[in-house]
Design brief:
The protein has about 180 residues and is mostly helical. The protein is flat and about 60 Å long. The termini are far apart.
């Protein structure tokens, strides 16, 4: 009986999550370009770039940035949450570019969706592990890898979007570059 209740409750949770996801996607697809840009939350772009390039373009000394410094450069849990929320808006902005450059924006948006999944996965793992005691080694060992994953994927999303707008709609590029 308890197995049945657990199964039903899990199905209900999954169904609710799917419905909420569809509602959010429908809502964001109806936004204008200005509304989408206004939804972007401020993130430390310089810090993201430093951590991302440490991961994406390794140098001889690959242990340059300590986990605590990475955490601070990314803005802690608040900065990671902003990155996760912005990921959805960045994808919507790429989809919006389909109006001017359908072929390229479809490909860029799909790449960005994959990057967004990596950002979400890393941020959610960090959020889950933050509930654990800080002295647990598994949380401390995984943290730098998760921070690199989140920063690297977010950085790629931002670069892809800016490149798309630079070639597709140069008139909107300066405002987007200033916000992203």
């Amino acid at each position: 009986m308890s197995l049945y209740i657990a199964l039903v409750s899990m199905i209900v949770v999954i169904a609710v999550a799917l419905v909420l996801s569809r509602v959010r996607a429908h809502h964001i697809s109806k936004c204008t370009w200005d509304e989408l840009v206004a939804k972007l939350q401020p993130v430390g772009s310089e810090g993201i770039t430093v951590v991302a390039l440490d991961h994406l373009a390794p140098a001889k000394n690959q242990l340059r940035i300590e986990p605590e410094e990475m955490w601070n450069l990314l803005g802690g849990l608040e900065g990671l949450n902003s990155m996760e929320q912005n990921a959805t808006v960045l994808i919507a902005l790429a989809a919006y570019a389909e109006r001017w450059n359908y072929c390229e924006s479809v490909i860029v948006a799909e790449r960005m969706r994959r990057d967004a999944l990596a950002v979400r996965r890393a941020v959610r793992s960090i959020r889950r592990s933050s509930h654990l005691r800080p002295w647990l080694t598994i949380a401390n060992v995984r943290l730098p890898f998760l921070l690199h994953d989140a920063a690297g994927s977010y950085y790629l999303m931002r670069q892809r979007l800016l490149a798309l707008y630079e070639t597709s709609h140069a008139g909107r590029y300066p405002r987007l570059a200033a916000v992203v």
